[in-house]
Amino acid sequence: MGSDRYGEMFPGQKDRDRWLGWERFKIAHFQQLLAAQDRTSGARTQGDVGPVFVTGVNLCLFQLDEGIPPIYQR
Predict the structure, then answer these.
(1) Which of 5, 22, 26, 52 has the fewest C-beta atoms under 10 angstroms from its C-beta?
(2) DSSP labels, 5-58
(3) What is the gyration radius of the CA atoms in the chain, in angstroms?
């Protein structure tokens, strides 16, 4: 989403320190996502859905940081 897009989506939010941008999300969640990986299978099993879905979503998040998935490129 970038650092400034949140302000475009929610123009009423004037306090930039509270905006949810990619950098804040990454700092808050990447270590948690890395720690949630099962060391034997490589899968992630958070939440009430199966490990295939959770692992797929988490891998997409990791790839976003590098701009790899073409579906998210403009």
Answers:
(1) 52
(2) HHHHH-TT---GGG---HHHHHHHHHHHHHHTB-TTT--B--SSS-HHHHHHHH
(3) 15
Q: How far apart are CA 71 and CA 28, in angstroms?
A: 24
CA 4 to chain centroid, in Å, comes to: 17
Stated pTM of the model: 0.57
Backbone angles phi, psi at 16, to 5 degrees: -65, -25
The values of phi and psi at residue 38, to 5°, are: -70, 125
* Model pLDDT for residues 41-61, shown as the tens digit of each residue: 888 877 788 888 888 888 888
Question: Cα separation of 39 and 69, whole Å?
Answer: 25
